[in-house]
Amino acid sequence: MRHPTEGVLRRLLDEPSGVAVSDRQHVHDCPACRTDLDGMHQDAALVRACLAGEAAEDLDVAAAWRRLPATAPVTGRTAKARARRPAGLLKRPSVAALAVVLVLGGAGTAAANDWLQIFRTEQIAPVSITTANLIALPDLSAYGELALTADPDVRAVPDAATAEAETGLDVPQVSDLPSGIAGEPVYSVGSKVSGTFTFSAERAARAAAEAGQALPPVPAGLDGSSVRLDAGPGVAQIWTSSTGAPALVVGRAVAPTAFSSGVPFDMVRDYLLSLPGLPDRIAEQLRTFTADGSTLPLPVPADQVTTSSTQVDGVPATLLVTRDRTLAAVVWVDDGVLTVVAGSLDDSEVLSVARDLQ
Amino acid sequence: MAISGPGHCVARADLDEVFRQNYRLVVGVAARVLGSRDEAEDVAQEVFLAFGRTSVPAGQARGWLSLAAAHTALNARRSGRRRASREVVAAGVHDAVGGDVADAVVTLEERSRVRAALASLPRKQAVALVLRHSGLSYNEVAAALDMSAGSVGTTVRRAESALRKELNRHASSH
Questions:
Q1: What's the pLDDT tens digit per position in B153-163?
Q2: Given A50, A133, B20, B38, which residue has the most CB atoms within 10 angstroms?
Q3: For the whole prediction, is pTM greater than 0.80?
């Protein structure tokens, strides 16, 4: 009889009931497997001991709960709120890029070979998507396969020169830091991230049936075809407040670009729009996108963020401010490079930093 | 998701209950990565704030929070935004989960070395290992990482084997 795999043996250590009786019996009777199992047991015990932390029983959960800013009454822009606030995910352009992969993934089209560029980011236009929609987006797996073909590999580097060398991007220099922010930033770089969505008509039909709806007729050539989206590399400079929370982030990345094998972008977009479950309001906004795909659908949680148009050095930019006005960001794309300035600041402060970048 | 506010106005009604049920777990996950409970509690704050802005069903909160804690803690290690003053591994620590601790006596240096190696493992391996050692079942780890329960054992084993090799490599060079 064949020996059980390493994975089965490892599970046997933790959850014998999760292992088939025949495998358990085999291990019981097989000296070689038992030797392997002993080795695994020792490794597991060693790692468990190395990773063990202080006992959790005496954690003061009630005090921790009171610390959580979300439980505090809304009192405007208090010093405490400012100090504890997470700076969102803007510090990592690759994360924003991933969200775009998911949005575009729903538009899955085109053949796997012979990629043509169908989408190049020249402008940023906000699309209002609620948080709930964002969370639902990964469910695009109901319509096909979404695969990240390259991980962003975000890591810290010691200085701007290294960041420039590793990303090939000009690292923007901040000439005047806003009041309350001082010191040197931490430099973080991310390599190029790439994702591919492959549309499956069969899967989409199943998902639609489960939702009690019929799948719109699939255009010829769409089934089994893919869209690839590349983003990055990118670099972020992060200034932290005294509590360790990010206070100012200046990020720059090669803007996302999508490729397909020649199916017109209109078809991609229109089929995405016709998929069951896409809210009408978002569908209407998506329809405003230009047929040449020159606008980036940046997903923004509309229930938390207001957006407006502005300019940075003559380039159209989008200003985003959280509704409680504790976080602001400005984003623009110039010549295929996306730059973002975000922080625990107000809108005039982020704009001032953005416009003074060297 | 691209941008998120701090969530003062949008805290979910069930956040209190989810927090009380899962706080120790979340701190435990982060502490395994970071080696500092204070720092792990900071990560937990960040994770629950993020959770408060989501509409993840309460029934999936345990997996979501554990996964977020592992990623946030690993990111903190990698990005170098940890505070030097927190680089402390408490002496005389013991494991709240129990298990095989009595079988293995390890030095502070070994702890530190394993945590450093953990941060450089492929992300999926590191997360699977930390979640499993934090008490999540194979099915829970599988659901959190979108993998089959059958491959959780393989992934955890690879991670443990790599960490063991790292310790052996260092031991043999001294």
A1: 999 999 999 99
A2: A50
A3: no
